[in-house]
Amino acid sequence: MTKPHSQFTIARYEFALSIVRQLRDAGFQSLWAGGCVRDQILGKEPKDYDVATDATPAQVIQLFGERRTVAIGASFGVVMIPGTHRRQGQVEVATFRSDGEYLDGRHPQSVRFCSAREDAQRRDFTINGMFFDPISETVIDYVGGTEDLNRKIVRAIGDPSARFSEDKLRMLRAVRFAATFQFHLDEATELAIDTLHHQITQVSVERILQELKRMLAHPTRHDALAMLHSTGLLQQILPELFHDNSPVSIDIHFLQTALRNLESVHFEPAMAILLSNLHAPDKTDSTARLGAVRETCRRLKMANEEIEAICWILESQRLLDHLVSKPLHVRKPLLAHRYALQLLSVSSALAAARGLPADDAAFAWHYLSTHAPESLAPEPLINGCDVMALGIPEGPAIRNLLATVRNAQLDEQIQDRDSAIKLLQSLASR
Ligand code: ATP
Ligand code: MG
């Protein structure tokens, strides 16, 4: 069991501990539960601490006071307690509960308050089903989570088919936990996903995207992809990757190799790699291909900014080709772009997967490391007012003139405002 060391994480730890103490002092059972127990045993800093108790939501609210609590899911027995300082984070206090019937493939219709032992049974995987008493510092394990953690296994609690049928999202969670922790899926758990994978489409696209993003924003993304593919989940969540709906139409080895070689930990470059070979009716038509990428991203309800990043990264790959012989007015804006580093990561990763040297990306890295940001994107020497001062009417002509002068500046043909104005005058008099 690892305790936190940094100031920031100690504050969250202490806060979560104080909540357990207060509940205990008031005569209730209270324990840390779920992911935070697992993370602590693994020696990772928990993202957040969850407390489980036999106090009802009303009793929790009464104990901590209405002003200090937020009843975020009181019907499910969850009350949130924000810290008084930001660094304390917030703690979710959940009443031990057992879930009623699942109707929509995602949420229980009702819940019933129960014992800790029963509460463990409703949790998804054994590694997520443990409790921890932070006062006596003991693990309370009703589901065999400790052993599975040691053996590095993601195993559904109870009958895997039944658990995945109740809540289909668990199938994606299983893959995410297995990939990010570098665990194996338990055989029966994996078999159940193989069988039920097509039901994942019953989960909202927002939740699917959320899981996909977490998998792709992790260095183990190539393993997540392999598991998504082998279980059949990939074809359900990203059917666009499968030409004619055929499971053999995707070059999974290529995508996996590219992802393994991807250095950026962001989600967008990983997604760009997945979509890099998206099938479009006319493969040579780059606009149509980019359109297909955009459509896929929209279907997954990505944020506009994410879509723009992914499209820019893919669209700009060809500008990187033979970068060394491209004019400076092409090279500089490309490398000054806010997604330039992600572009280079993707380019290197794709080159590695193709078995080619990443010459263009290497040149770009070198260029970036030897040129200051302000030399890549210098202040413009002139602006629209300078053009209008020459009596040129508003319109596209102004934009063209400005662009020509800007290119000359980036190409280092002109260095100062005087020469920019001179160039402008000679261009305008033509
Ligand atoms: P992380 O926060 O790192 O993704 P976590 O295990 O803390 O991992 P949360 O989504 O924060 O995951 O959920 C907290 C706990 O609630 C889990 O550890 C698990 O015990 C339970 N849980 C979460 N989602 C489900 C689910 N879909 N089905 C059953 N139990 C769940
Ligand atoms: Mg969590």
Verbal overview:
By secondary structure, the protein is α+β, with helices and mostly antiparallel strands. It has four domains: about 1-150, Beta Polymerase, domain 2 (2-Layer Sandwich); about 155-235, Orthogonal Bundle (Hydrophobic Seed Protein); about 240-375, no CATH class; about 385-430, no CATH class. Helices cover about 55% and strands about 10% of the residues. It has 23 helices and eleven strands. The strands form three sheets. A seven-stranded mixed β-sheet has the order 3-4-5-2-1-8-9. A hairpin with a 7-residue loop joins strand 4 and strand 5 (about 90-95). The longest helix is centred in the N-terminal third of the chain and has 19 residues, at about 5-25. The protein is elongated. Magnesium ion (MG) binds near residues 35, 47 and 48.
Determine the mean pLDDT. Answer: 93
The Cα radius of gyration reads 28 Å
CATH topology annotation of the largest domain: Beta Polymerase, domain 2
Name the structural class: alpha+beta
Q: Percentage of helical residues?
A: 40-55%
The shape, in one word, is: elongated
Overall CATH class of the largest domain: Alpha Beta
What is the number of beta strands?
A: 11
Head-to-tail CA distance between termini: 77 Å
Quickly count the domains: 4
Low-confidence stretches: none
CATH architecture of the largest domain: 2-Layer Sandwich
Strand content: 5-15%
Strand order of the largest sheet: 3-4-5-2-1-8-9
Assign the CATH superfamily of the largest domain: Beta Polymerase, domain 2
- Main pleated sheet: 7 strands, mixed
How many DSSP helices? 23
Query: Which hetero compounds are present in the coordinates?
Result: adenosine-5'-triphosphate, magnesium ion
